[in-house]
Amino acid sequence: MKKRPVFGLAFYSHSVPIVEIAAHYGFDYLFIDAEHSPIEVTGLRELILAAENAGISALVRVTAPDEVEIRKALEMGAEGVIIPHVKTREDMELCVRGAKFPPLGRRGYDAGVHSARYGSIGYDSTAYIEGSNRDQFVLPMAEDFEFIDNIDEILSVPGVDGASFGPADFALSKNIRQFYKLDHPEVNAAFDILLEKTRSRGQCLMVPAVPPSYETAKALIDRGVRMLTMGNDLLNLQTSLLHLKETVLDRYA
Helix (H, G, I), strand (E, B), or coil: what is residue 60? Predict the structure, then answer.
């Protein structure tokens, strides 16, 4: 992100080949969704390992602000966690407690995990702790109006690396049927606040590019977004299948 915008793909399926294909096509990260999909611990571990092997960053959206769930995702090798429905400073402090070792948090220590390479030859506990605190992302979801109401308190918690904007849930929290469009005045105002607050702190802001097109991406990049999620695996598969349906299947129906 210091050199250029980065591009990700939201991920709802359990398909290891799609993880590998996304890496081969040049995506920078996977937004692995464990909140809205049936992905559980064993499957999540397989996906994270596949991402690591393919050279694409695995960021896991856990199901809730939960210390143990956050820690387990990071111990499995996720390069970051995305936490839904963070509404208060207290929520954020709980997340950091699970994600970061002291002095930033109170993450439980164990060398017998993948992220520590199981404490094998050459393992250095101090380097592991410092590297984890430095390199593993913690991104709360800005998807409730309470997040914007409390944004300064939330983003000022030490150990927070930025935020991930969820415009659909943010709009719904205000009883606005807007979903992923950013042109509603209240949704756009929240987006502007997020851009200003994260930029002033040197933090990143992740935003979904919907529809996932050059025009959408350019508009977000021109506004200062450096982390763009270009749709999801199921949506992009459906787009491709729809094209085939309209250009081939329907002609012979």
Answer: strand
